[in-house]
Amino acid sequence: MIYFTGDEHFGHKNAIKYCNRPFSDVDEMDREIIKRHNEVVGDDDTVYHLGDFTINKKKRDKYLSQLNGKHIFIKGNHDKEGYDILEIKVDGQDIVLCHYAMRVWNKSHYGSWELFGHSHGTLEPIGKQLDVGVDTNNFYPYSFEDIKRKIEGT
Predict the structure, then answer these.
(1) Which of 28, 81, 102, 147 has a 20 to 30 Å separation from 127 between CA atoms?
(2) What sign does the CA torsion over 60, 45, 128, 112 have?
(3) How far apart are CA 24 and CA 35, in angstroms?
(4) DSSP symbols for 62-89
């Protein structure tokens, strides 16, 4: 299976306030996001993280070691590692991955999707794009099938 997520903001206590997250403190937030991730993602699954994984770079590996799956990172404004933008194909579907939403993207006029984060659910998608940050999916990652249903309406 392939999953997409972003904007976890592990270790970032201000994410609770700024994003109106329903957690009493950063430890509860971190535990719950890890728990929900592992409820759906298996060890052999691939997970694309679309930026802002953690505010605390020194603890990045600590958080990562608790998460199921094989991880590929897209760089967000709080990240130093990962791709700036990545183009992939899943089941014949072209997908552009970037932390930031774009007005147009490669092959956008030919049915490609753009998955993004950064806006924490406050930005309406244009065309075939979707904010896949944790704030938009009850703190769970999206599966490819979830996204296909949302974008294609199937």
Answers:
(1) 81
(2) positive
(3) 16
(4) HHHTTS-SEEEEE--TT-SSSBSEEEEE
Under 8 Å between Cβ of 85 and 112 = no
For the entire predicted model, the pTM comes to: 0.96
Angle at 28 between CA 33 and CA 6, to 5 degrees: 25
| Tens digit of each residue's pLDDT (9 = 90 or more) over 53-92 | 998 888 899 999 999 999 999 999 988 889 999 999 999 9
Please, what are the domains in the chain? Answer: 2-152 (3.60.21.10)
H or E stretch covering 3: strand 2-5
Which residue in the block uniquely carries the two structure tokens 């904010």?
131
Tokens 């075939």 found at: 128
Distances 7 to 10, 19, 29, 91, 128 between C-alpha atoms, Å? 8, 10, 12, 25, 20
